[in-house]
Structure formats: C-alpha cells, structure tokens
Design goal:
single chain; alpha/beta; 12-stranded mixed sheet; 7-stranded parallel sheet; 6 helices; about 15% helix; Leu-rich_rpt; LRR_extensin-like_regulator; repeat; leucine-rich repeat
Length: about 400
C-alpha cells in the first residue's frame, strides 16, 4: 500500500510540474531524483504545493527558501507541524510564519488555499501581491490570517466573511481600497487590524456588534459619526480611529466601554463638547481626541479618571479647564495646548478662536446628553499620582509597518 502511494505521489508531482512549466510559464528545478519518504501522507500531499510556490518567488534576500528541500517539511524555515484536529495521531503542516522574510511573489493563490490543515498564516513584511483567493474559505482550521505590510490590492477580502472560525485578521499596510463590508463587525473576531489602507466607508450602525478586543481602523478615510452602538461593544480593550475623516459629536455611549484601556479618535473632524460619560471609562489609560473641533469645558470627571496615563486634547477649541484638569496638566497627563483657554500657555490666538465660534456649532443629539454620567462618579480631587508605566499596547504597535502582532 505504501509503495503504491508514493508511486501515485511521484506521478502527481510530475503532472503538476508539467502543468506549471506549460501553463504558468515558470521554470522548475529537476524532479526529485528519488522517491522521498515523508513522516505522514498529509505532508507528502503538500510537498509539491510548497515546491511550486517556491518557484514563483522572485526575491529571497535572506535565503529562506534554501531550507525548503527534502522530505522533512517540518524543518523548513517558516513551516511548523502539529497534530490536526481531525486526527490527533497524524502529523500535518499546521502553521506558517513568514514574518520579516522579505520574500517577493506575484501571488499567494495556489499556495495557502491548497494547504488543507493550515491553522495560522502570518506573513508580515514581505512583498506578496495580487488579491486574496476566495478558496481560503475552504480551509477548515484557519483561524489566524496576517497579510500585513505587503502589496495586496483590490477591494476588502470579503472571503473572510465566509470563515466563521477566523479570530485574528490583520491586513494593515496594504493597498486595499473601497468600502469595508459591515458584516465584518458581525464576525467572531478577537483582533481586527485594517489600518493604513485606502478604505472609504461611513462607519456602520452595527459597529457595536463587534466581538473584537482590539479594533484598529486608523489611517484610512472612514467618514460619518462614531455610531452610538459602539457602547454595546463590551469586549473592546483598545480602539484606534485616529487619522480618518470622522464627523459629528462624540456619543456618550462610549462611556459604557468598561474594559477599554485605549480609545484614540485623534485627528478627525469631530465636534461638540466632550461627554461627561467618558468619566466612566474606569480602565482607560490612553484617551486621545487631539486634532478635532471640540469645544466647551473639559469635564473634571474625565480628568479625574484614576488610571489615566495620557489625555490628549490639544488642537481643539476648549474654553475652560477646572482645578483637577489643571493639576493633570502639571503632572504631564493632560495636554491642552492649542485650545482657547487663554490663561494657559501655548493656546490659539484670540482671533482664531473668535473666528471658530462665529460659525454656528451644534449636535444632532440633545445637549443634555453631554452631561450624563451613567456610572454616577463625581471626582472632587485629582487621582493619586501614579508612577511612570510602560505597557505594551497592541493597537499602537499595529501603527508601525514592521511590527509583528
């Protein structure tokens, strides 16, 4: 039975190689001189897939593919084996980690979509191009997909909507364009990184349906207001919406994000007062609304948040700051530069502030909502001083092209 299998495999390799030479117009190395012995038949079946992909690689500056020889696929650099969920006595190719390999290839089609036992694929900082094959939806075990910092293009890879087992999606730093399907926020994702592309979309009302812990939409062209439904996204820990084209007023429902440690909507076009409900963000450490069109008084209840490390409100049009906020400025926690509080240093000119307030400013929601404090907290003094804390923030790491998440 074993010899029959390897004879069949040899014939399959020959036919596959013949097809590649004739139809794909690529050159292949000589066929393996002897029949290879594989640890498991599952590894034997993916061997020709790997070899064909190897020969589509046009640049390999680190010599990675020089290790992709012989039958011991589990020792190939970047390839990892494990027991597949459907047969714990078998050995299969379970994971691929190409992070930082700097490989160049015109496409991944015909490669990862042909690896039936693949559970993880990470390929940050390579030069893979083309589009994402819809066939990857046929991979039953794939739950982590990282295509970040490559040269993929086209529309959002909607194939991921047909992958209910996917929990990690990272497509940042590519050239994807167009809209993002609202259904992505209905997926059971825990990590969603789509920053630094060219996506254009009014944030959908179902944004709050996301189950993500980490949501990074930064550095795109998202428009419209932050949906009120965001308050329903109770699992959110870090949220990055910075450097988009968001408008409207900040919804007080953000104050319901009890687990959030980071909320960053800096450098947008948000306007209106800062909601007092943000004072209920009991876990928040980084809160950034700098570079917007916000005005009014900075709520003391926000400045009094006990875990704050950084509250960035610079480059707005705030006109008042109370004693708790002023103490936080002295501590280096609160940044209120370039506002309209003229007894503080480094503010906008009177002329600039007058011109801003000469235009009517309003929000569609009743002004009373900005004073709602759902948790009922009322700080009367600044929070205790905290030592300098350096904490790894996953979402901010996603803003660096070469960071591996």
């Amino acid at each position: 039975m074993g010899s029959f299998f390897y004879l069949t495999l040899t014939i399959f390799i020959f036919l596959l190689c013949f097809h590649c030479v004739c139809c794909l117009n690529i050159s292949l190395p000589p066929l393996i001189p002897d029949i290879l012995k594989f640890l498991d038949e599952r590894l034997a079946l993916v061997y020709p897939i790997i070899q064909v992909f190897k020969n589509t690689i046009t640049l390999d500056p680190l010599g990675i593919t020089s290790t992709w020889v012989g039958s011991d696929i589990c020792q190939y650099k970047g390839f990892y084996c494990d027991h597949p969920p459907d047969n714990l006595s078998a050995t299969a190719l379970a994971s691929i980690d190409f992070n930082g390999f700097q490989l160049s290839a015109p496409s991944l089609d015909g490669f990862i979509d042909q690896l039936p036992d693949l559970a993880l694929f990470h390929a940050n900082s390579n030069n893979f191009a083309g589009t994402v094959s819809p066939k990857i939806a046929n991979l039953p075990f794939l739950y982590e997909l990282d295509l970040s910092n490559n040269n993929f293009m086209g529309t959002f890879p909607s194939v991921v909507l047909n992958m209910p087992g996917l929990t990690f999606l990272d497509i940042r730093f590519n050239s994807f364009t167009g809209s993002v399907p609202p259904q992505i926020f209905m997926q059971t994702l825990e990590f969603l990184f789509i920053n630094n592309n060219n996506f254009k979309l009014t944030l959908p009302d179902n944004l709050g349906a996301t189950t993500a812990f980490y949501l990074t939409l930064a550095n795109n062209k998202f428009t419209g207001p932050i949906p009120k439904s965001i308050g329903n996204a109770s699992s959110l820990i870090e949220v990055l919406l910075l450097n988009n084209l968001l408008t409207g007023c900040i919804p007080y429902e953000i104050g319901f994000l009890k687990k959030a440690t980071v909320f960053d909507a800096g450098n947008n076009r948000l306007t209106g007062p800062l909601p007092c409900s943000l004072g209920c963000l009991e876990s928040v450490e980084q809160l950034n609304f700098a570079g917007n069109l916000l005005y009014g008084k900075v709520p003391e209840v926000v400045c009094g948040l006990g875990n704050l490390v950084n509250l960035s409100l610079s480059d707005n049009y705030f006109t008042q700051a109370g004693p708790i906020c002023r103490e936080q400025i002295k501590r280096g926690v609160l940044d209120l530069r370039k506002n309209c509080i003229h007894d503080l240093a480094d503010q906008r000119s009177v002329k600039e502030c007058t011109e801003f307030f000469s235009q009517p400013r309003s929000c569609l929601r009743p002004s009373s909502t900005f004073n709602i404090i759902p948790c009922g907290v009322q700080p009367t003094k600044p929070p205790p001083r905290r030592g300098s804390r350096r904490k790894l923030l996953v979402s901010y790491a996603a803003l660096s092209r070469n960071n591996r998440l």
